[in-house]
């Protein structure tokens, strides 16, 4: 069901952007809301004061639900389409929020969180394909300080943690209403043979007539990509590790590894458990832990401004390298300073450790937070992009679940030694990115295919040389010609090119995601 609620052109584009960002507001809110709840006394009473292992499962089962929702969406998402998948996701989230809000036991809460997670998984694997904007980083802070404010509300009993959870439904209902006025993805319509509808959508989104060169070029690109997909057949799971001329298996593995790095650096220790870490490891009071925890979350917001303005300029590799190094140093300093527990200087060193929680969150927001989300669709060839993205996103949720589940045990039983685990993983990511991950910023889709198809040099070295030439000569001309080998590379990877102007892929550069 579709209602023509928005004017063509800018208003439609803004509506799409707003709806997608609001969907990720919900994602960010869900991520942050439990951080300020798990220490609430009434919540602990209702949950019968779970031990650290059970608390880890209660929190992390949401991420397991997200993993399930991701897999579910890649099974039925093509049948649903983008708009209906968003509605479908909001339905799961609303039901899950109702169950969590009304929970009076561990099993009740876990079922609610798992169902909410399914909706979030569907949402996060749909919205990036519909519109390239990701979640504003400040949304976790909103939910966190909402939790903090509600912690002072004593009556009615339980409202301090039930109301923040219930507010998830407000965002979901607004998204449901907004989607009624949004068009379907034109690529999805072309794929389903609804060409006239797809053309009308392109005209509405860009506010241009059907014979406009930009509309015709966009239509030609989409149709050529679909034709190539049909000509060479759909990418099958069983061929995921099979070698081909564009190294598809390796590129899927790189996508998986990039999202692995996003989670295994220890970010969810800070997102979910920083008040508990400050209280149990640093020795602060509960109220001070909540306040400082909220300020630490604010550093995420500040750091996130850096990639907004500079990610395409500095590339993908450099932020991942210096970001991982910075995160490792922060974890190392936290471990060192907390290791003085039980000595005469423990108060001073524990207080100093707080500073490195701030640096950790600042660095993560500026680097490892957003790079994996834009790198995954960039590194994958077109014919494997849908399933490769599924692999990448499932990696994120699977390891998210793992980290969130074990963190309470690390904090309570290993104390400062637990931070050494994440110190090691972050330091290991530095050489991994340096030696294994090619640069993708400012390169066209075929250029990325070519660096894997060309056997003369390694993909990393090729990518750095091509990007250097691209920056030196400007963005007007592709660095790859239409030789027979390169044409075969394009066919093998399904990356489409424009035959009209002699530029590969129409000279278009890779951005964070495919735009509607």
How would you characterize the overall build of this protein?
- This protein has 516 residues and is mainly α.
- Among the domains are: 1-182, Growth Hormone, Chain: A, CATH 1.20.1250.20; 185-233.
- 72% of the residues lie in helices and 0% in strands.
- It contains 22 helices and no strands.
- The protein has helices at 10-33, 41-46, 52-101, 106-124, 127-130, 139-150, 159-166, 168-179, 186-191, 195-206, 213-232, 248-264, 267-282, 286-314, 317-338, 346-366, 371-379, 385-414, 417-436, 445-453, 459-473, 484-493.
- The longest helix is centred in the N-terminal third of the chain and has 50 residues, at 52-101.
- Residues 132-142 and 481-516 have low confidence and may be disordered.
- Belongs to the major facilitator superfamily. Sugar transporter (TC 2.A.1.1) family.
- It comes from Lithohypha guttulata.
- Keywords: Membrane, Transmembrane, Transmembrane helix, Transport.
């Amino acid at each position: 069901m579709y209602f023509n609620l928005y004017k063509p052109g800018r208003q439609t584009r803004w509506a799409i952007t707003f709806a997608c960002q609001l969907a990720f507001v919900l994602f960010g809110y869900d991520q942050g809301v439990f951080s300020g709840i798990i220490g609430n006394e009434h919540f602990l009473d209702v949950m019968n004061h779970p031990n650290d292992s059970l608390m880890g499962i209660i929190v992390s089962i949401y991420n397991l639900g997200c993993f399930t929702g991701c897999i579910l969406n890649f099974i039925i998402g093509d049948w649903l389409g983008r708009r209906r998948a968003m509605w479908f996701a909001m339905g799961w989230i609303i039901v899950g929020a109702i169950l969590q809000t009304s929970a009076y036991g561990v099993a009740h809460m876990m079922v609610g969180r798992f169902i909410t997670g399914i909706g979030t998984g569907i949402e996060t694997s749909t919205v990036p394909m519909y519109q390239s904007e990701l979640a504003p980083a400040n949304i976790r802070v909103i939910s966190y300080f909402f939790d903090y404010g509600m912690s002072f509300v004593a009556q009615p009993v339980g409202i301090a943690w039930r109301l923040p959870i219930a507010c998830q439904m407000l965002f979901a209902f607004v998204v449901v209403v907004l989607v009624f006025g949004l068009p379907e993805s034109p690529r999805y319509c072309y794929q389903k043979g609804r060409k006239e509808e797809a053309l009308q959508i392109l005209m509405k989104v860009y506010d241009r007539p059907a014979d406009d060169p930009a509309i015709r070029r966009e239509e030609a690109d989409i149709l050529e990509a679909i034709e190539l997909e049909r000509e060479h057949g759909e990418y099958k799971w069983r061929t995921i590790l099979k070698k081909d001329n564009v190294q598809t298996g390796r590129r899927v593995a790189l996508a998986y590894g990039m999202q692995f790095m996003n989670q295994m650096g220890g970010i969810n220790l800070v997102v979910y458990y920083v008040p508990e870490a400050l209280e149990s490891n640093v020795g602060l009071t509960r109220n001070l832990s909540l306040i400082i925890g909220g300020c630490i979350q604010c550093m995420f917001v500040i750091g996130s401004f850096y990639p907004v303005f500079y990610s395409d300029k500095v590339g993908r590799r450099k932020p991942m390298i210096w970001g991982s190094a910075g995160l490792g140093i922060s974890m190392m300093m936290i471990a060192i300073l907390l290791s003085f527990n039980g000595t005469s200087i423990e108060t001073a060193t524990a207080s100093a450790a707080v500073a490195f929680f701030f640096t950790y969150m600042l660095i993560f927001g500026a680097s490892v937070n957003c790079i994996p989300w834009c790198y995954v669709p960039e590194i994958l060839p077109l014919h494997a992009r849908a399933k490769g993205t599924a692999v990448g996103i499932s990696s994120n949720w699977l390891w998210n679940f793992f980290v969130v589940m074990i963190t309470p045990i690390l904090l309570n039983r290993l104390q400062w030694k637990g931070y050494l685990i994440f110190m090691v993983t972050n330091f290991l990511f530095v050489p991994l990115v340096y030696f294994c991950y090619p640069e993708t910023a400012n390169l066209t889709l075929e250029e990325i295919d070519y660096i894997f198809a060309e056997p003369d040099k390694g993909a990393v070295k090729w990518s750095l040389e091509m990007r250097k030439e691209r920056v030196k000569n400007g963005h007007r001309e592709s660095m790859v010609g239409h030789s027979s080998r390169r044409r075969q590379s394009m066919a093998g990877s399904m990356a489409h090119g424009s035959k009209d102007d002699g530029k590969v892929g129409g000279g278009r550069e890779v951005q964070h995601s495919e735009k509607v």
